[in-house]
Structures are given as structure tokens and as C-alpha cells.
Design goal:
This protein has about 180 residues and is an alpha+beta fold. The protein folds into 2 domains: about 45 residues, no CATH class; about 110 residues, Jelly Rolls (Sandwich), CATH 2.60.120.10. The protein has 3 helices and 8 strands, in the order ααββββββββα. Strands 1, 2, 3, 4, 5, 6, 7 and 8 form an 8-stranded antiparallel sheet that branches. α1 packs antiparallel against α2. The chain starts with a helix and ends with a helix. The structure holds fe (ii) ion. Fe (ii) ion (FE2) binds next to loops.
Length: about 180
């Protein structure tokens, strides 16, 4: 079976994700045997569950602009929207690189400071503003206007968007490399 056939059958509910993965694994083995001379194809199939996050500008995301003190790491292929922001020595300052925005996905924000360093974010939720210090997690329900902008510090800010209505496993299969 080809990946496309497996994806269609999965969408039609003919297979559970584990069965679809077994079929993808078999398809990958076929492909690697056909391309035996190409060693890079002889990989473990579950390698497809490991994603490399690459440096991707903040300005590629709607309602966001680049800011000097943040490096954003992201994988286009990851089934959910997961962005990891490395904050480097942000001097205390009001910043507005993230505009107030809304989306239908729920969002989780995680603020982790470096050892012995406070990382502080200005978080707006609807009409209320909070100064949130590491280490904190923020749950943003779907449809809530929000923005998060670093005020000062060093560490990591992780943003994960969830969408219970979308089939993330389908996206996972679709992005599977065989
Ligand atoms: Fe958001």
C-alpha cells in the first residue's frame, strides 16, 4: 500500500492509528528495499515520531513580529502547533511584538526561567493584564483574546496550540516520511 492509500483508509476509519503505523512501517521497508543503495532510507520507522525544531522567525506567525531577544524554534511537520522560544537576556522593557489575537484552538503557554533567573512575561487575557513570573503555565481557552510579551529575563517560553476537533494523527500520517 502507498502512504496515500493508508491515509485514505485511516480517514475512512478502517484502521486504528497503530494499524496505520504498521502499514506505514511495511511500506517504508518496501521503499527502502527498492532503494537499497540509498542507506538513508534504511532507518527505524519510529524515527518519524521525532521532530527537529528549526530556527523560524516569529514574524512567520500571524499577529507576531520579530524581537531581538527571542529565538523561535518550530517544526512545520509536528502534528500540533508547538513553538519553543529561547529568551536571551531580555533587558526590562515593555514590548508589543505579540498583538492581542484570538483563535479557536486552546493554547498552553509555559514560562521556564534559567537557573536563578526570573523570566517575566506580560500576559493579556481579554481586558486584564498580568505579570507572570517563571515557572508558570497558562491555559488559554479557545476564543479568548490574548497576548504574551516578554518583560525581562532569560529562559524558555513554550506555546502549544491544541485543537480537539482536528485529527492530529491524520496530520502525523500525512507528514510521515517513507
Ligand atoms: Fe495565541
Amino acid at each position: 500500500m502507498t502512504k496515500e492509500e493508508i491515509l485514505i483508509a485511516y480517514k475512512e476509519g478502517k484502521y486504528e492509528i497503530s494499524e496505520a503505523l504498521s502499514l506505514l512501517s511495511a511500506a517504508a521497508k518496501d521503499t527502502s528495499e527498492a532503494l537499497a543503495s540509498n542507506e538513508s532510507k534504511n532507518k527505524n520507522i519510529f524515527q518519524n515520531m521525532i521532530y527537529e525544531n528549526v530556527l523560524t522567525p516569529l514574524s512567520t506567525v500571524a499577529h507576531h513580529h520579530d524581537v531581538e531577544c527571542i529565538e523561535r524554534y518550530f517544526s512545520e511537520k509536528f502534528p500540533a502547533h508547538l513553538a519553543i522560544h529561547r529568551v536571551n537576556d531580555a533587558p526590562e522593557q515593555k514590548r508589543e511584538y505579540t498583538e492581542l489575537h484570538v483563535h479557536q484552538e486552546q493554547e498552553i503557554n509555559i514560562i521556564v526561567g534559567d537557573k536563578d533567573v526570573d523570566l517575566i512575561y506580560e500576559v493579556q487575557l481579554e481586558d486584564e493584564t498580568y505579570y507572570v513570573k517563571s515557572n508558570s503555565t497558562i491555559w488559554i481557552p479557545s476564543g479568548i483574546r490574548h497576548s504574551c510579551n516578554v518583560v525581562k529575563g532569560s529562559g524558555y517560553y513554550i506555546a502549544l496550540r491544541l485543537n480537539p476537533d482536528s485529527d492530529m494523527d491524520e496530520r502525523f500520517i500525512n507528514n510521515f516520511e517513507i
